[in-house]
Amino acid sequence: MIPFEFFLVLAAILFVIGAYGVMTKSNAIIVLMCIELMLNAANINFVAFGAYNSDVMGQAFVVMSISVAAAEVAVGIAILLNAYKLRKTTELTDAELTSLRW
Amino acid sequence: MIEYTWLIPFVPMLCFVLIGIFGQKTPEKGGYIAIAGAAISFALSGIIALEYLTGPDYPNVVVDSICWFHIGDLQLNLGYYVDGLTCMMMLFSSFISTLIFVYSVGYMGDQGGRKKRYYAEVSMFLSGMLGLIVSSNFLEMFIFWEVMGLCSYLLIGFWSFRHPEGDAASSNAASAAKKAFLVTRFGDVCLMGGLFVLLGAFGSLDFVDLFNPVNIQNVNPDTLTLGMLLCFGGVIGKSAQFPLHDWLPDAMAGPTTVSSLIHAATMVKAGVYLVARGFPLFVQNPDVMLFVGLIGGFTAFFTATMALNNMNIKRVLAYSTLSQLGYMILSLGAGGYLFALGMDSGNAALMAAGTAGFVAGCFHMMNHAFFKALLFMCSGSVIHAVGTEDMRLMGGLRKQMPITSITMLLGSLSIAGFPFFSGFWSKDLVIEAAFEAGDHNVLFMVLWVLAIVTAFMTAFYMFRMWFMTFMGEKGKNTLHAAEHGHGESPKSMTAPLCILAVFAVVSGFFIMFGLDGMLSFTELPGGFFQVGGGHSEGFEYFSELFTNPYTYLTIVLALVGIYIAYLMYAKKKINPGRFNREGESVLYKVLTKRWGFPDLYNQLSWKLGYGIARGVDYVDRQVVDGTVNGLSGAVVGGGEAVSRVQTGDVHDYSSVVLLGIAVLAVLFIVIAKIMGGI
Amino acid sequence: MDFTSIFGDYTAIAPMIILLIGALVAPGVHLLGKKRTATWGFALAVVIVSMVINVLMLVDGWTGSTLGMVYYTDYSGLMMLLFQIVLFLAVVVSNASVETTRFNVGAYYALLMAASTGMMFVAGSQDLMMIFVGVELTSISSYAAVSMKRNDARAAEAAVKYVIIGGMSTALTLYGISMLYGLTGTTNIAAIAATTSITGISFVFGIALVAMIAGYGFKIAAVPFHMWAPDVYEGAATPVSLFLATGSKKMGLSVFFQIFLIMFVSGTACAKIAGPEVQYLFAIIAAVTMTVGNIVAIAQNNIKRMLAYSSIAQAGYILIVMAVMSEYALSAGLFHMFTHVFMKGGAFLVVGALICAGIGEKISDYRGLAKRAPFMAAAMMLFLFSLAGIPPLAGFTSKFFLFSSTMGVGTAAGISLESQWIWLAFVAILNSAISLYYYARVVKTMYVDTGESAERIKVPAAFTVAIAICLVAVVVLGVYPQLIFDLCETASHALLFA
Amino acid sequence: MDFPILSLLILVPMIGAVLTLVMGGGRQKSAKYVAAAFSAVTLVLALFVLFNSDSFSSMSESYEWIKTDFVSISFSLAVDGLSILMVFLTALLVFLVVVFSAEAEEVETDRPNYFHTLLLAMEVGLMGVYMASDYFLFYVMWEVTLIPMYFMISWYGGPRRHYAAIKFFIYTHVASLVMLIGIFAMGFKAAEVTGVVDFSFASIATVMHGVEEGFQALVFALLFFGFAVKMPAVPFHTWLPDAHTEAPTGGSVLLAGVMLKMGSYGIIRICLEALPLGASYWQWVIIAIGLVSIVYGAYACIAQKDLKKMVAFSSISHMGMVMLGIGCLSDAGITFAVFQMFAHGLITAILFMVCGMTGHKVGTREIPLLGGLAGKMPVYATFMMFAFMASLGLPGLVGFWGEFPVIFAFYEFIVANDMLWLLLFCMLSLMLTAGYYLWAMQRTLFGPETTKIDLSHAHDVSKTEFAAMAVLCVLVAFFGMWPDAALQFIEPYTDGLIDILGVI
Fold first, then answer.
1. Which residues of C touch B648 (CB under 8 A)?
2. Residues D394-414, mean pLDDT to the nearest whole number
3. Closest partner CB to D192 (pick from C416, C440, C447)
4. In this complex, which of A93, A99, A102 lies closest to B643 when CB atoms are compared?
5. D211 or D104: whose pLDDT is higher?
6. Low-confidence ranges of chain A (pLDDT < 70)
7. What are the residues whose beta carbons fall under 8 Å from the beta carbon of D224, sequence distance 6 or more?
């Protein structure tokens, strides 16, 4: 059996990769994907804990969170499309997407 | 009738209100109201004095008071206090004031609408003085004392705007008024301190409580000494003693009638009166009396020097007032010193000698009131005619103004101590008191010498003034006045002159008719003090005086002074310029600069007042306010700075979130470690 | 009233169900009628019906649960009322505001109602999963609502930022919940508390805690998770800003109350283990939040941004509850949440009304407003003074209770003076004073400065009505706080000691 | 008494304020008559209360206001010897300001009615502060006074009015918030005993008297800070000169006349009544602040060029005298500190009226630009002289009785503590006070008529201005000659207070 800690470490690495991506990637789509990565890290945690504790709650939570993530990405992509239409860019560092400040 | 004593100050106060409200509509803008008020006060004073002196109570004090209010547990009263001293003071004050008001009708006749202000203010001034005289406690006295201070401010500054002689004179009057008020205020503040000490020590300010020997015994002598010294500070301010004397010459900026009122009937006499009234407390410590005497004697000499070369007729009179006030204080100091020594040693003879000094001081105060009022009013008459105060522009006025010149001559003779004139009697008694005290303290001997020299100087400068004004060649303004037919002043002015001249000549004889008994200061069995009811020497004075060799010394010195003045200014035999290198000598310059006192006052007030004030203002703006503004600036600037973190770049936002999590996690662990939760 | 006989097992979620149905039907109504106003009327009717039912249940004191998942208590009822009021204020002006009338109104009202439903579900939950789902329902609906201003570039940008930061926060929350689940094996809050009180806390627990604080702190806009808020409030249509600033924020706070307050409130077993640590953590967050919010607000020139920062600061004040963790503090915090709805909502409404009248969002655009629109200016002044805590307005009264709660622990057993949080009270009052500076600046601009134009402004009637409601509430709650404070006390008692 | 007269004292100006507020359009000009009527009614009510001093206790009112599980707040009003004088002063000054300003430029602007609204609103707050006997109500009313004053300055003020108004607003607001924390602390401490946070004066005071010194001292410090800023005492005073310099005349009159008194009223009413041990703990600090304020204020006056700013600093100096009297913690000290509050209220009202007239009749208040005004405007000059003399403590006028007995109380205190040299500061301040007033008078009223400014439009006092100032002058003289008229109210109160302080 794979040691329990491996799951946690995997999840943590995924989470950190996701967080790093959110902080550094300039393309909004990639940032959204990175957020997905972070969510999935949490999902892995849930599944691992659920399995470890023999508790269905973890898996139930994962189902919930996956659907939530899907909805979020759907809305997110729509919002990005809208922004692209108006700003002609999806680069988050562009002046067009940093006009609201201070 | 004596229970109506309170009316004496009340009537002039009522006149003040009446003139203030209706003055503009009455003839002479309220002048007659003021005269009537003063006359009623005089009449009341006369009736009450007569009733008191002939009544059953005499020589006991008649006192009555009502509760005014409380300070904590201490009760403060309003009331009147009548004894021999009160009678004398209120009589001459109201009498002279009445005459001055009458004189004012002529003197101020051309002042138009301003007369209302004038009469209102002089009425209040008189009210202040009379109130002070009849007060039954120190606080009441202090209030009237300050009311006079206010009135003197207003009256000295009467021409502080729209002066008939132009802007410079207005500025001058304004600054003189301010100086008078501030310098006397300095004394008043000391007096207030003295009242605190007395009130704290005795728990009352009523004279009857303060003069009660039982109470005095219970008070710490050092406290009492401090209190009396502080009170004397008030005297120094009000009676213009050295070193607070310098406001008085400047106060000549007011109308001459005001000078006359301040110098003769009211105001400066208040200080002397305070010493006389507080005598029972002053004599508790001989050193205090020594100090009083020193101040008085030195002032008498010191201020007389400045009269020697002054060219302004009113200024000469002002310095002579200072000098004469010095005499009075000296006399009270010397008498008090002897009395205190006598009390300590139980020596009745010393106490009697002390009483003589007290009588001399009060007596001189009264005589001085008559002749100084006369002199000022005469000078006013002269100024009225020639339109200048500079004696070099006068001269030869004797023919043009016969009444003025003669009455002024009588006044001058009196102040100079010419035998049998009023000043002669009292001044000799003063000098004698100093001499007696000299037996017990060598400092009084020094003061005696100064007093003798001052007597000489007085005779000289008074006659210098008279000769320069009325004799010799006609000056520029004399001629000018003659051209325009400005001769003798109107009757309303000359009549008071004549009346006063009579008093200036004869008031010295009052002492032969029991005045000394009325003013005698005695310690009764049981330690109570009393003014009045003493032994009256009557005509024995006459023989006493003329068997004393020093009397002849003063007479001779006075005559020599008059003669030198005659030679210098009437005959022009001696050129005064010889003595002062035509005004170039150091002494002459120093005298002209009034020994540097105006500069000293200016420097002190400038440095201690405005100098520190500028510093405080700087601190206020830069440090205190600066801190407030700095703090608010820091907050606003901090807001600007922090808002720059909000770059608009969503990466920064997410970085901040993650950084925040890291910081919070560390914080949580640290807190948990500290609290021992983990 | 016998609610159970009407709604059966679903009584506890009856107000939500009605809103949810409304949300589902609203687009259809719009498609059928193609009439803006009709859709608006429908949405308003739904909101009012839902609110009426809720108020009736609340006043009746009905309690119960649906499927053991959603509980209707005095607390959740009160929070639902708050969210309904927010929704009502947002909806009532949406048909009049030029910012929202060009929206696809069917979808727009549906989104608002869905978001509110999410909030209300959160209020009724006692389980982390329910809370998570409820929050996400709100979040996703509000992302969409922000971006509805379709032809507005600023709104688009705001929505992008909102969705990215929001998504990240969701991930953080989920990660935190997963840790907590791993540690305790349950997602029920009471059960988590019970387990923790036995096992004690660990580093992992701390990280889970912080991750959850961050995730929900995003909703509250607590510093340092606040940075999206000014941008989004500025970019979104004003009714949406209002909805976010007063509603969404309160949901976050409610989550804090329901999770951490229940776990760590003094006296519980959990509090004995980690109570002070958590309290200090929240105290620091509260202090930093109010300070940053206030001082940055000073630097703002855009009124909506300024109000956004002021919202951040107000959230900081309410976080005092989390530091003090007492029943009295919670009552005061709930009361402040109510007054904040009216005063901040009112301020946003005035801004929205003025945008309709063609006045910009810059503070300098408000010059001489007092002459052009006396009622608007007066209302704005009162809202701002209320926010600054000037008596006798509602903001003062609620702050009075809130700040005083730092002084002592009030329990049913008695009151004792505690010196622990007095420093927090000092930070709060200093902030209150700083806030006066920028509020007064707006007042000065409106009342003292003279503008270029002096013509009178007409604002839509709906706005006037909504503003008047807020104004009445601000004044009435100021002088007669008991109107709502009693409810807050019952609610806090219900939450903490049920 | 069943008749709620104290509530009416708050209600009447409130109605007046609302009425004047809604008087729009052409009726704005008549707002002054409405304001005059309402403030006159208030004054009559205040006089009625004043002359029924026997039934003070039966006039107090208390209505339950907020009652929760933990907090109990009531709407309680009461008057006693301390508050009635302030109530009277408030009613009087508001009425006189309305009269005084009848033709002033404030009421000539485009919002004449607002001026009166603000005045009456301020009256509401002031009345509330002076009559409240519940901390919540007290604090509410305390803050209510701020807003009208803020608008008063920013609408009708001088060139730097924005700076002054916001500084005034925030500075005093910070102070009152600090005070609020002190109130909280007291409330919760008292609640430990009573079980509920009851904010009524009486219930808190009862408990506080039994609390240990350390706590009392701490709370005293918080409350004292709040009050000292309001008074204002050096070094927390810098809002005042700015506020006064910029405020319109009516605002200044109320600000100095009654609003500053809120500070000293609070110290006596709250700090001393509730925290006697705290008072004795900080006694030397109070005295030091009082002394420093007196001397510092007086010195600052000398350096001022703006007449109004000078008078503002003189207020600091005179309120320092109040502080000094309070600091003595003796019967005499407190009694006459209260008297000084009353006296200063009357005098400073005339002072600011005079300064205001200088501003709008002559065109400038810069002392160096003025000169010789006495000839041009004799009535004005008379009032100015009277006010200055009253303010510098001329015996026979009311100011003296606020000074002499207070310094005497201080003298007794320092004699008991063997620090007699401190008396020198009082003496110095008396000198300085006379100095700056006389110097100012010399430079403004006397001397040659100024040529630096155009005096051709300067005109003397108008009828309404004369009436307002004359009333005040008469009162100044009346209470100066018969101080017992005011002391009869204060003394019974102080006796009770001394009993409380007796626990020291």
1. 231
2. 90
3. C416
4. A102
5. D211
6. none
7. D267, D271, D282, D286
- Residue D298 makes CB contacts below 8 A (sequence gap 6+) with D313, D314, D317, D428, D429, D432, D433, D436
Gyration radius from chain A CA atoms: 17
Terminal-to-terminal C-alpha distance of chain C: 22
Chain D contact present for C425, CB below 8 A: yes
Residue A35's H or E segment, with its range, is: helix A28-53
pLDDT at C59 over 70: yes
The H or E element containing residue C316 is helix C303-324
Got the DSSP string for C4-30? Answer: HHHHGGGGGGHHHHHHHHHHHHHHHHH
- List chains touching B (3+ CB pairs under 8 A): A, C, D
**pLDDT at residue B59, as a whole number:** 76
Query: Is some CB atom of chain C closer than 8 A to the CB atom of A91?
Result: no
pLDDT tens figures, B519-568: 888 877 777 788 877 777 777 777 777 888 888 888 888 899 888 888 88
Contact, D149 vs D259, CB < 8 A?
Answer: yes
Return the structure tokens found at C335: 């009361």
Structure tokens at C407: 């002084």
DSSP-H helix ranges across C185-202: 189-199
Q: Please report the pLDDT score of residue C109 as a whole number.
A: 92
**Which chain A residues touch C187 with a CB distance below 8 Å?**
57, 61
Q: How high is the pLDDT of residue A96?
A: 79
Question: Which amino acid appears at position C183 of this protein?
Answer: L
Q: Name the minimum distance, in Å, from the CA of D399 to any CA of chain C.
A: 35
Among C132, C143, C160, the residue with its CB nearest the CB of A97 is C160
> What are the tokens at C430?
């200093």
Ordered by where they begin, the domains of chain A are 4-95 (1.10.287.3510)
Which whole-number Å values give the CA distances from B648 to B641, C157, C230, C248, D69, in the listed order? 15, 10, 10, 22, 47
pLDDT at D503 over 60: no
d(CA D112, CA D458): 23
CB contact under 8 Å between C295 and B638, yes or no, is: yes
Local confidence band at B491 (pLDDT 50, 70, 90 cut-offs): confident
D430 touches chain C (CB under 8 A): no
Q: Position of tokens 């009057």?
A: B173
Residues 145-164 of chain D with CB under 8 A from chain C are 146-147, 150-151, 154-155, 161-162
Provide DSSP, B176-215: HHHHHHHHHHHHHHHHHHHHHHHHHHHS--BHHHHT-HHH
Q: Could you tell me which residues are beta bridge partners of residue B529?
A: B523
Structure tokens at B285: 């410590």
Q: Which of residues 231-250 of D touch C (CB under 8 A)?
A: none
Query: Using the beta-carbon criterion (under 8 Å), do C167 and A15 form an inter-chain contact?
Result: no
List C-alpha distances in Å: B661 to B60, B667, C213, C217, D448. Answer: 96, 10, 9, 11, 75
| Neighboring chain D residues of B181 at a CB cutoff of 8 Å | 434, 438
Q: Which helix (DSSP H) or strand (DSSP E) does residue C410 occupy? A: strand C408-411
Model ipTM value: 0.90
| Closest chain D C-alpha to C131 CA, distance in angstroms | 30
CA distance B200 to B203: 5
pLDDT over 80 (residue B481): no
Q: Which of B646, B648, B655 sits opposite A23 (nearest CB)?
A: B655
Q: What is the length of chain A? A: 102
| pLDDT at res. C1 | 62
User: D435 CB near a chain B CB, below 8 Å?
Assistant: yes
Please give the helix or strand (H or E) that residue B336 lies within, else none. helix B313-345
Q: Which residue of B has its CA nearest to C199?
A: B678
* Mean pLDDT, rounded, for C6-28: 89
Shortest Cα distance, chain D CAs vs residue C372, angstroms: 14
- Find out whether C341 and C308 touch, Cβ atoms under 8 Å: no
